[in-house]
Amino acid sequence: MIEKIVHFVLKTPAVAILLALGLVAIGSYSYSVLNIEAYPNPVPPLVEVIAQPPGWSAEETERYVTIPLEVGLSGMPGLDHIRSQSLFGLTDVKCYFKWGTKYEDARQEVINRLQFTTLPQGVQPSISPWNAIGEIFRYTVEGKGYSVQELKTAEDWILERQFKQVPGVVDVVSYGGETKQFQIGVDPFRLKGHGVTLAQVTQAIQNANVNSGGQRLEMGEQSYDIRGIGLLRDVHDIENIVIVDIKGTPVRVRDIADIKIGPAPRLGMVGIDNRPDVVQGTILMRYGSETRPTLEGIHAKIEFIKENHLLPPGMEIKPYYDRGTLVGLTTSTVMENVGVGIALVALVLLVFLGHVRAALITAVTVPLALLGAFAGIVFTKTSANLISIGAVDFGIVADSSVIMMENIFRHLGTHGRGSMKQRVLAAAHEVGTPMAFSTLIIGCSFIPLFTMTGVSGVIFSPMARTYAFAIGTAILLSLTLLPVLAWKLVPANAKEKDPFVMRGLHRLYTPIADAFLKHPKLALPLRLVVLVACASLFPLLGGEFMPKLEEGNLWIRATLSKSISLTQSAKYVDQMRAIVRGCPEDPKVACTPENQRHPEVLAATSQLGRPDDGTDVAGFFNIEIFAPLK
Q1: Pick from 283, 279, 281: which is nearest to 165 by CA?
Q2: How many CB atoms sit inside 10 A of residue 553's CB?
Q3: Which of 358, 397, 490, 611 would you call most buried, defined as having the most Cβ atoms within 10 angstroms of its Cβ?
Q4: b/e per residue, 72-86, with b = 16+ CB within 10 A?
Q5: Cβ(606)–Cβ(577) under 8 Å?
Q6: Of the candidates 188, 159, 187, 190, the residue with the CA atom closest to the CA atom of residue 173
């Protein structure tokens, strides 16, 4: 079979060249659309349910919300286990499904079960948009002269709605700032004096805050739609709401309460450097979406917001974390490994073959094999990462090409017979079986990777697929392109001669081999000594489940007392940011780049507590600091 393939490409060399060019085109296109991630998602299908009972303690939240949710969600198909957490005003229930379960099916099953779960009145559970690798973009909303309440309002009502339109974005989490509220402070004495109950006040405000539709009114040739405008717009509208009518005298809201605009009770704060309170937005990517097109959509949306002046004058978006930086770092690391690997393979081939053309012909199969791997990865919809591509051994990939070229070289020179085409064909016929066996052995060594399941399967299966695609492409190239290039570019009278490196190794190896041939009884004990020495050094080897990837950032987490207040925790977090930046110990001295003891820290961004939507299960006791480094 191998001889027939080689005979066909030598008969029609244009076919092999066209196939190679097609591989270059398809592989280059595949690389341009390749989904590159830093790491694969190591978490099984996870659906998280959150509920925020207002003002409930952790005990009541656990008893009346968390436990009913656990009971209602138990027994779902494919469910592995449930974990829950109850805090003040927050319930978090995580449903972990078995590997192999589709996330969409798991999510729909949870939604179906929530419909039949009975919870206290006013408690509405929801599906959390969070996933393990979902946070891809963070930014702050800033503007000179604007309060944090105005910045938060722009974040909630403008930016959040715009970013949710980007394909691949599942949610935008607002963190920090003050949420605007119309606050009605009811005076119990005035309430009693007018003979009005609190329920009547609540009902009157709800009834007043609504638009109502009517019919049409014909006037001449025109038809007019009739509607009642009742939505509340400002404090004065609330003050003028009539609660009851006592003997023809209306009792309005302003008669029994004081109305003002104020912030909602805060659940968390965000600070940057010397600013203790800023507004932050975190964009979450949908489970299973690709990072590159999602980030491209986010960047395009930011430009759209700027060009169309959607934000108030002077207000702007300032990104401080972009997953694209990490993906770029991963890509550069992988490409560096690929480039160094190809260069080393070419150098070794040149040193040991001693022929420039033959070494280059053999080495050219390595990048082509990698392009074939890219095409296979895109075709199977597998994401590339630091493990799947960076761990590829190019020596193994080039093995089949080295075998073929080495045997072709053996048929060159004066001791070869026939034309160059006949010599190439004879060389391919001789190495067909050994090359098939060597490839089969390499393929069998990857069978355990293909059979892995769970976390190990998610992490190492892409690497096994990449190897399979690269080795398969390299074998096809060694049977098609390499014989044609050797026939056209390597002269038939080229002599196989040992380079100086091989001659030096022969001088070292020959006396040792002759000595063991004369004293064969010494060979086995020496082998045992080497084996024992290697076995004794094995425990000293370092081992990592995941390769090290330096992102160039620090993520610091501090846990305080569970009962700490927001005010006291905010004081501690200000001190922590100053320590991370290396600011002067005297708080009266301003921290500037000139007196900063840690100039390698670009900024210190802190998160205290949790966002308003409860997607981060934490309280005032939790502090996280993000510090990017130069």
Answers
A1: 283
A2: 13
A3: 397
A4: bbeebebbeebebbb
A5: yes
A6: 159
Write down the pTM of the prediction.
Answer: 0.82
pLDDT band at 550 (very low <50, low <70, confident <90, very high): low
To the nearest 10 degrees (0 to 180), the angle between helices 399-410 and 481-489 is 40
In terms of Cβ atoms closer than 10 Å to its own Cβ (0-12, 13-18, 19+), residue 195 is exposed
Q: pLDDT per residue over 107-164, tens digit each? A: 999 999 999 999 999 899 999 998 888 899 999 999 999 999 999 999 999 999 999 9
What is the per-residue DSSP string for 228-282? E-----SHHHHHT-EEEEETTEEEEHHHHEEEEEEEPPP-EEEEETTEEEEEEEE
- How distant is the alpha carbon of residue 482 from its chain centre? 39
Q: Which of 473, 475, 488 is nearest to 431 (CA)?
A: 475
As a whole number of angstroms, the distance between CA 324 and CA 369 comes to 27
Q: How far apart are CA 499 and CA 521, in angstroms?
A: 33
Q: Which pLDDT belongs to residue 346?
A: 78
Residues 573-628: tens digit of each pLDDT: 999 999 999 998 887 888 888 888 898 999 999 999 999 888 889 999 999 999 99
How far apart CA 583 and CA 604 sit, in angstroms, is 11
Tokens of 210: 């609504």
Distance CA 97, CA 103 (A): 9
Distance CA 51, CA 570 (A): 26
* Pure H helices in 391-453: 394-397, 399-410, 420-445, 447-450
CA distance 235 to 181: 11
Q: Is 319 helix (H, G, I), strand (E, B) or coil?
A: strand
pLDDT above 80 for 68: yes
Q: What φ, ψ does residue 491 adopt, rounded to 5°?
A: -70, 150
Angle at 40 between CA 35 and CA 41, to 5 degrees: 120
Under 8 Å between Cβ of 184 and 206: no
% of the chain at pLDDT higher than 90: 44
pLDDT number for residue 546? 54
- Distances in Å between the alpha carbon of 591 and those of 140, 143, 583? 21, 21, 5
The DSSP bridge partners found for residue 48 are 94
The structure tokens listed for 80 are: 């592995």
**Token pair recorded at residue 395:** 């020596």
Sorted by sequence, the CB contacts under 8 Å of residue 553 that are 6+ apart come out as 626, 627, 628, 629
Task: Give whole-number Cα distances, 495 to 360, 491, 507, in Å.
Answer: 17, 9, 21
Pairing of strands 79-87, 212-219: unpaired
As a whole number, mean pLDDT of residues 392-417 equals: 78
Task: Give the position of tokens 């196939």.
Answer: 19
Q: How many helices (H) and strands (E) does the chain have?
A: 24, 18
Alpha carbon 292 to chain centroid, angstroms: 10
Give the DSSP per-residue string, 468-537. HHHHHHHHHHHHTHHHHHHHHHS-TT------HHHHHHHHHHHHHHHHHHH-GGGHHHHHHHHHHHHHHH
Spatial distance between the Cα atoms of 40 and 288, rounded to a whole number of angstroms: 11
User: Which of 238, 235, 236 has its CA nearest to residue 202?
Assistant: 238
